[in-house]
Structures are given as C-alpha cells and as structure tokens.
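Pipeline run #58 for the internal structure catalog. This entry was flagged by the ingest filter as a single-chain record with no existing model, so it goes straight to prediction. Upstream metadata was stripped on purpose; only the residue string is passed forward. Reviewer on rotation: M.T. Logging verbosity set to normal.
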Amino acid sequence: TENRTRCTNRLHRLMKIHFPEYKDAFGKTDGSFAVEILKVAPFPEDIVELGEDGIRKIWHDAKLRGRGYSRASEIFRYASASVGRKEGAESDRYSVKCFVEEMASLDEKISIIEAAIKDKCMEIPHAEKVLEITGLGQNIVAGIISSMGDIDRFDDVKEIQKLSGLNLVACSSGKHNGETKISHRGRKELRTWLFQGAKSVVAHAEEFQLLHEYYTTRNKNPLKKMQSLIVIACKLLRIIFAILKKGVTYDPQKMLDDIKRFEETEVVVA
C-alpha cells in the first residue's frame, strides 16, 4: 500500500506539471477510463492529437463499459486549453506509463493479500460476531486482531490498551502537574487500526454517533472531537475483547444505556 501511494504521488506530480487541469478533465483520476488514457496519451498534446473519437476508441479497444464515454469531450476541451509545460514531455510520458502499470500491478497484489487476510481473520473464533458492529469491515477487524495477537495471552483488556499505547499517562515532573495524555507507546499498528475503527463506527453506527455527541457536548468536562474518538477507540477495544474472549453477542442498546448512566452520574455529582 505504501508503494502504491508513492507511485500515485509521483504520477500526480508529473501530471500537475504537464497537465495541471487533469483532475477536472478526468474526474476520477484512478478510474478505469482515466487509467487507459494515461497509458497511451497522458498529456494535453497527446489528447488533442487523438481527438474525441480517438479517446473513445482507446476505451472501446480496452472493452470498457459505462457512462465514462460521455467525458471524452470534456477531456478534449481541458486538454485544448491546458497551460501545462511542454518541455521534457517525452521522458515524463514514459514515466507516467510506468507508474500507471506499477499501480495496476500493486492493486492486484493488494487484492490477493487482502483476500488472504480476510480468510485468516474468519478462522479466528467469534470474529464474525465482531463484524456485526456496524462500521467495522473485514479489513479493520483483521488489522486489529492481527496487531493484537492471540487474545488468550491477555487476562484483562487494560493489557491490550497498554500494548496499543492508548493508556493514559500523566505528564508531570516534581511539583508540575501537566496534562494527562495517551502514552503512544506499544504497537503503532494496533493503535492506528483502533482509531480507524473508531472513526468508522462513529460515521456509520447510530449508537456510537450518540456516544460521540455526548462526549463532545456534555455539560461537565466536554471532550474535543479527537479526544472523544480516542475514548471511543478504547471502548471499541473493550467490546472486541469481550466478544473474542467470552463469545458474547454485541448489543447496541448497551451503548445507549451507557450514555444514560453517564447522564445520571453527572446529575448526582452536580
């Protein structure tokens, strides 16, 4: 994935030099219609030489189907009025072709690896129950479980929280009492997957959306959005730990019950 990102960034750099308007012209720059053009005629002068019929012929020869054919006139219009640099186009044209081909090869390898990871993930007991959490896909679940390792190694979820670097530490020295922050120690990959999982469930699961809203708007000690996501990542970890360790079924209603308990506690304290 890192290699794919590098190729994409290098490709974008060359295109911005020679065809600054290419994103507006192609729309989806990594779509199949754009990729076929980039292989043969990436720069404005190449596209102008082809003409609209030539662009459509490239797509037809590649046996593409869909609504992309309607962009041929748009691509030609942007290429005709482009202000891109003309010097050095010959060598950069070959570089673009190499980057596009390498990206396609890497996409194929990534698909194979992801499919293997998903298959391995489903071999783990109760993994299918974790996937019942709205917003958690197989990639995120596989990433969390593989970074965490065998769940039987842990007696308490706090051990995994510490392993991920999401445990709280006080930044204090002598008489100075600083802020309490997460340690950022341990396995960065696990911390990253948990944070990605937190963002995904907040975006797609109603109960986590309500929890996130509560944390950021409560009367006492409201959290910033980033702080709330970290708290939700820890909560998500506790839920996943309980499912994998005990085989329990995820119940969204418990999330809402937690909010009620928080509100009741806040009233008592006040």
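catalog note: The first strand starts at residue 168 and ends at 173.
catalog note: Confidence is low (pLDDT under 50) at residues 264-270.
status: ready for reviewer M.T.
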